[in-house]
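User: Design a sequence. Structure:
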């Protein structure tokens, strides 16, 4: 009663607070769900569709009203085993009836230890034997940055141009893919310097530029950075995605990652490998860093680690984490050991590499088409982390890849057309790029359907120009 009187008095004053009673009484039961969402969900969240998802299974998503679409987004590489994988979902449900919040600041608990036991068999290097769990990729990045500073007692962090590591404060400071992620948030975490990634755009080169030359130029710029901007004595770590995510799905050549390892060893820096999006089979091996054979000092994993449940991890050698003081780090995990089991039982990596070959073959054929090809600058990626970059008529007057005859905003227009035709497909980077992130266990038939929709969408957008 007291609350009701207070609301009535507030409303009677005629101020903007008079909308409060109405807002409190609105519900999904009395308002259309989309109208309710548009009123009450923070404007800071962007989305591909103004619709409401009701359920999802495997590679398919069903919206309110029964419309079913093929999902080539997988929560940006989260549901790697498809939506609602039966074994993973069953294990989570059973765990919820046994132990939900096993606070690791109180004691060890069995699911925590069983998860470590399972992960020890799949980490990319035998030295990675000390685990810290968190809830999200951004949180794991924050933890890795904190660890690097705590272990080395040095402040500065070298980030890569085009990188994405998250939207929380420290992660946002090392994110260099789009300015929008930090819009209005300055000053950011200090002590971050930026070095080029071997992507042809970063050196004003053309598509197909020689990898060896891009690697040489990138490593030279990093060496200059350590001489001119951040001395090794002040620098804790280099953080890098082995495949740029929001920077455009650009795989790092193995020689670049090997060069980073050499420079870090020479200068006493830690090497942080962020596999939040590229890890857990996404690129055809359990971790992308395995292609280069490089040993991380800190390995960050999330997304596919738990197939949709909130879990991330930082893994490192025990001799490094033994330098941390107890109490400086604390979090809790859920129990996704069934994800790792499914990779073996369902031969997921075999499917990734088979479907990857089919996807690349189709995209290269599209690029070779005399009508479509002039508008496609690049087809790239690894495994089922694949991108198509379109040309742009006016990206920059200095960009050698500008194509005046290409329709404007190709990537967003293709993405929207795909949605109309029944395919979820996301854009990425500041360039005209779309990305393919299907479930790793997608069937040949579903992959073929998605490719067909994409081809139609591209052709229609070009013909509309």
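Assistant: Done.
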């Amino acid at each position: 009663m007291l609350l009701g009187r207070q609301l009535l008095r507030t409303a009677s004053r005629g101020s903007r607070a008079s909308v409060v009673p109405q807002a409190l009484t609105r519900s999904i039961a009395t308002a259309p769900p989309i109208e309710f969402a548009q009123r009450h969900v923070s404007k800071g969240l962007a989305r591909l569709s103004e619709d409401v998802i009701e359920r999802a299974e495997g590679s398919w998503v069903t919206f309110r009203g029964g419309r079913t679409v093929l999902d080539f987004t997988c929560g940006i590489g989260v549901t790697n085993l498809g939506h609602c994988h039966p074994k993973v979902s069953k294990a989570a449900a059973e765990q919820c009836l046994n132990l939900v919040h096993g606070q690791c600041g109180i004691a060890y608990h069995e699911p925590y230890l069983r998860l470590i036991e399972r992960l020890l068999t799949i980490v990319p290097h035998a030295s990675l034997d000390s685990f810290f769990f968190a809830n999200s990729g951004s949180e794991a990045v924050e933890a890795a940055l904190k660890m690097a500073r705590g272990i080395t007692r040095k402040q500065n962090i070298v980030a890569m141009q085009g990188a994405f590591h998250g939207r929380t404060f420290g992660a946002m400071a090392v994110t260099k893919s789009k300015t929008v992620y930090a819009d209005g948030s300055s000053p950011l975490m200090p002590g971050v310097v930026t070095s080029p990634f071997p992507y042809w755009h970063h050196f004003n080169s053309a598509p197909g530029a020689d990898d060896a030359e891009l690697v040489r130029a990138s490593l030279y710029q990093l060496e200059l950075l350590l001489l001119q901007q951040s001395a090794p004595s002040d620098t804790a770590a280099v953080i890098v995605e082995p495949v740029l995510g929001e920077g455009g799905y650009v795989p790092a050549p193995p020689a670049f990652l090997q060069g980073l390892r050499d420079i870090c060893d020479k200068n006493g820096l830690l090497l942080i490998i962020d596999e939040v999006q590229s890890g857990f089979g996404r690129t055809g091996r359990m971790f992308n860093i395995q292609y280069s054979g490089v040993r991380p000092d800190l390995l960050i994993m999330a997304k596919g680690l738990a197939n949709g449940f909130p879990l991330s991890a930082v893994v490192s050698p025990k001799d490094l984490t033994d330098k941390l003081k107890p109490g400086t780090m604390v979090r809790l995990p859920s129990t996704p050991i069934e994800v790792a089991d499914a990779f073996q039982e369902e031969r997921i990596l075999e499917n990734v590499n088979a479907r990857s070959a089919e996807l690349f073959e189709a995209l290269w054929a599209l690029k070779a088409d005399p009508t479509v090809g002039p508008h496609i600058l690049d087809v790239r990626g690894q495994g089922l982390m694949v991108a198509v970059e379109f040309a742009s008529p006016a990206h920059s007057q200095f960009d050698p890849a500008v194509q005046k005859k290409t329709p404007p905003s190709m990537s967003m227009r293709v993405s929207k057309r795909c949605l109309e035709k029944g395919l979820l497909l996301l854009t990425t980077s500041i360039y005209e790029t779309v990305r393919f992130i299907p479930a790793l266990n997608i069937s040949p038939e579903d992959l073929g359907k998605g490719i067909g929709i994409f081809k139609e969408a591209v052709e229609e957008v070009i013909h509309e120009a």
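Residues 1-21 have pLDDT under 50 and may be disordered. The chain has 15 helices and 17 strands.
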